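Thread: NAI complex, take 2
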Amino acid sequence: MKKTAIVTGAANGIGRAVATACAANGFSVVIADIDAENGQHLQDRLLNEGFDAMFVKCDVSDPEAITGLVKTAADRYGRIDVVINNAGISEFTPPDELTVAGWDRILNTNLRGAFLLTREAAPVMKKNGGGAVVNIASTRALMSEKNSEAYAASKGGLLALTHALALSYADDHIRVNCISPGWIHTGDYSKLREIDHTQHPSGRVGKPEDIARACLFLTHPDNGFINGENLVIDGGMTRKMIYQY
Ligand code: NAI
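Output below.
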């Protein structure tokens, strides 16, 4: 039986690349997103290419929708092996203008959604001997620009949630790791400027496929000794001192 991966926020950007990579590597892929048009489009493309995929409309900030997502995936495929908590929103608002509703929207999507989906999927993963979860955080969990409080807090929370879940689900053989991407360009890569690339120690801006390959690596059973970890993938930017002399 094929393994099953649920990827949230898979209709666009990084999630689409992760879902595509999972399909190409033999997984049945559940594309979970609020964007029905692009989610359906990705499902149809993967099916046309001979892969197994299913779009499920799901708002990860809605607990009931998450329960429905896991039930739909388990009913269709009978197992869940991998969960990629990728869905996320970023809004930048000065702290004195950030409303409670605005804070809650970002935290409930980026952080609470990852917790709830992992908790719902865990009993199904356990039935087939375990699995692996990857939470997509951000280098903004580690460093900041102005006016990013809610987003930064949500991503910092994901780092802590990752090691907490790794411990709670250790006995169920469910590993939980985290990726903190830097600048991953999801638009037209050819439109980037020279300075966009050269400022990175790696000499280029990141691509969604950089994150997709890391998801495959972290979730592969051969890499079972990596657990509760945060993998920064940012072309070296957070290792670069930026004092101006
Ligand atoms: P994107 O905006 O291109 O894609 C995000 C996807 O999530 C979209 O398909 C959107 O419809 C979906 N989504 C939004 N809210 C949702 C909800 N409530 N329920 C279900 N789906 C929802 O974003 P991108 O750039 O692909 O980012 C993906 C993840 O990577 C996010 O968590 C983001 O914070 C993180 N990230 C991205 C970086 C970048 O440079 N692109 C850098 C660091 C982190």
